[in-house]
Amino acid sequence: MIRKKYITGLLVFSVFVGSFLPMFTQRAQALFGGGIVFDPIHNASTIFRTGLELANMVARALAQAILQRMIESTVDWANSGFEGNPAYVTDPDRFFTDIADDIAGEIIGGSDLGFLCLLALPEHHKAFPPAKLCKSW
């Protein structure tokens, strides 16, 4: 019985408070006399969500590339008769740097920034040779 009164009271309170909420919202401002609406809060939240989605995509691509390379390295090591160690064990810095270079090359080459591959010169960019970064160019 008390539970029903509590739930009923909560619902009445929610409806009552909810009916006044539109009174506190900000009004959107139309720019240039019509169709274009400027809402900075919505724009900021959209930019933030887009940034999170982009970071999520990059993190997934990086994780998939690392896993794929580790599998390839382990299979190569097994095919060689288990001589030595897999690449990610013997030289992890180079192993992960190569993966990062390949991911950066895929992002640059597959976007509107592909023209940067034409500007990359080996003598100026020893850390990022064009052959690694820009395979499609």
Would you kindly provide a brief summary of this structure?
The protein has helices spanning 2-20, 40-79, 87-90, 92-109, 116-119, 130-133, and strands at 29-31, 36-38. It has 137 residues and is mainly α. It has a two-stranded antiparallel sheet.
Give the SSE map.
Elements: H1 2-20, E1 29-31, E2 36-38, H2 40-79, H3 87-90, H4 92-109, H5 116-119, H6 130-133
Antiparallel strand pairs: 1-2
Helix pairs in contact: 2-4
Note down, in words, how this protein is organized.
- About 65% of the residues lie in helices and about 5% in strands.
- The termini are far apart.
- It contains 6 helices and 2 strands.
- The protein has one domain.
- The chain has a two-stranded antiparallel ribbon.
- The longest helix has about 40 residues.
- The protein is elongated.
- It is mainly alpha-helical.
- The mean pLDDT is about 75.
N-end to C-end Cα span:
74 Å
Count the DSSP helices.
Answer: 6
Task: Name the structural class.
Answer: mainly alpha
How much helix, percentage-wise, in residues? Answer: 55-70%
Average pLDDT over all residues: 75
Instruction: Summarize the main sheet.
Output: 2 strands, antiparallel
